[in-house]
Specification:
TIM Barrel; eight-stranded parallel beta barrel; six-stranded mixed beta sheet; 14 strands
């Protein structure tokens, strides 16, 4: 197979690796197969200088071998799905931003994230999430969604994408045609959304169509089956009816189509990574993500080269996709390298202000003000837990931090302590029902209970009407700080 064909097909993969520097096997992969793009994760991020040097090395390596700048991709949505929160400015999650009811906050966070990415040399953000959170049992989306209402998700998602683009970073909306009405996580299983085409067009597709009208650069596929559009019931990523028929032809999208990770079980278990990637490219995907293994990337490239040779990848479509990729790469902006700006106090203050606006009283018994929280208050709660493989959560005990801030007591879920005022911190966790039972008992005993969700409001379902409910949206230090200020009346 000629080097020219390897250059054409090498642009169709974005490949990840372990470590803070480029491994030798990755260099060999790029040189042999002309891999055109890289994807980074938390495992690749130690500090600002290290990440800047890593991105510069990738740019030099891939540009020399392929003749084009690489897309250096990352999942830096906002909130819990963040690869940089431990070194940059932590941000409010999409649902928290939506709770402020100000779409300009979405733009501000998108711009903040874009500026931080460009500072280190990342030029392609796999965000925003354009899913409508219509299934409260969806753990994979949850607070990654701006809203359950299609029009609100569309408005906030478009403003976030515009912020990224104004910062000089490629924006990629996801997960098309929609992942918000699924109870399964496609990292683990194959979700099916069994709705009519009319219902999908009226809900899931609304934010994507708005993003397309606003000129979004790229859209990521979902490994989700939509029988209304794909009667063979294969995941959307490998469905030509969805990727080309629906997204390109019906909805008029002319930008780049990017796959979700091809190692995810929803496609791996059906086809294996090599054949799944071939099917994705034949369906209309421009760039497929192989996130973890150089060996898998090599075997996938061999399958793509063989498919080109045997005619199961159309040469004209391969060339057209290459041209789309090259045209977008010609517009990439150089990194700023601004270490003084990266993670600065100005960035952090902006994020704190939006997070504080987001903390919301969802229910107040008979409209009553929140009870006073002080040193006599009892705090109980659940620890932080990664609820989806898309998250990079850091262990945290919000109830303990709140107790420390107010000088109150921290009690176990099955404890026996009583108090006039109680703050109970909820999130998605196996012990959620046990905490709810404790809250019911305390309320029956006459305690004034404030229940806080550090995820979606679903965490607070089934609690007595006498309980105050607060949405704090995400389980991290940024939200805990904002919650403490709200409980303190500030």
């Amino acid at each position: 197979m000629s080097e020219e064909i390897r250059r054409l097909l090498g642009q169709r993969l974005s490949v990840g690796f372990d470590g803070f520097t480029v491994p030798d096997e990755y260099r060999a992969l790029v040189r042999k197969y002309k891999i055109g793009n890289a994807i980074l994760f938390r495992r690749n991020v130690r500090d600002f200088e290290q990440l800047k040097a890593l991105c510069a090395d990738l740019r030099a390596l891939i540009s020399e071998e392929t003749g084009l700048e690489p897309f250096i991709m990352i999942d830096e949505e906002c909130g819990s799905v963040s690869r940089l929160a431990h070194i940059a400015a932590p941000t409010p999650c999409a649902m928290a931003i939506g709770a402020t009811d100000d779409p300009e906050n979405a733009y501000r966070v998108g711009r903040l994230v874009g500026e931080e990415l460009r500072a280190v040399g990342v030029n392609f953000n796999l965000a925003p999430d354009l899913d409508c959170f219509t299934n409260p049992d969806s753990s994979v989306i949850g607070n990654r969604s701006f809203a359950h209402e299609p029009e609100k998700a569309a408005l906030f998602g478009a403003r976030y994408a515009r912020g990224l683009r104004d910062a000089g970073v490629v924006a990629c909306g996801k997960h098309f045609p929609g992942h918000g009405d699924t109870a399964q996580d496609s990292h683990l299983d194959l979700p099916i959304v069994d709705k009519s085409a009319e219902a999908v067009r009226a809900t899931e597709l609304v934010p994507f169509q708005a993003a397309i009208r606003d000129g979004i650069d790229a859209i990521m596929s979902a490994h989700v089956v939509f029988p209304a559009f794909e009667p063979e019931q294969v995941p959307s990523t490998v469905s030509r009816r969805v990727m080309t028929g629906l997204l390109r032809e019906e909805m008029g999208f002319k930008g780049l189509i990017v796959s979700d990770g091809m190692e995810m079980n929803a496609v791996m278990n059906l086809f294996g990574i090599e054949e799944a990637t071939r099917r994705a490219l034949a369906a209309g995907v421009d760039v497929a993500l192989v996130c973890h293994s150089a060996a898998q990337a090599a075997s996938t490239m061999e399958r793509l080269l063989a498919a080109y040779d045997e005619g199961t990848l159309d040469p004209a479509e391969v060339r057209a996709s290459y041209d789309r990729i090259a045209a977008k790469k010609a517009t990439l902006q150089a990194p700023t390298g601004d270490g003084g700006f990266f993670g600065s106090e100005a960035q952090r203050a902006l994020a704190r202000g939006i997070m504080e606006d987001a903390v919301t009283v969802l229910r107040a018994p008979e409209g009553a003000a929140l009870p006073t929280v002080d040193g006599e208050t009892l705090f109980i709660g659940l620890p932080a837990r990664a609820v989806t493989l898309a998250n990079d959560d850091v262990p945290l005990d919000a109830a303990a931090l709140c107790a420390e801030a107010f000088g109150g007591r921290r009690d176990a879920i099955d404890g026996q302590a009583a108090a006039k005022t109680v703050v109970a911190v909820f999130t998605r966790h196996p012990d959620r029902d046990a905490l709810a039972d404790r809250v019911r008992r305390l309320a029956e005993e006459g305690a004034r209970v404030i229940a806080v969700s550090m995820n979606t409001p679903r965490c607070l379902s089934g609690l007595p009407d006498s309980v105050w409910q607060i949405g704090a949206w995400q389980y991290d230090a940024l939200a805990v700080e904002a919650l403490i200020r709200r409980l303190g009346g500030r």
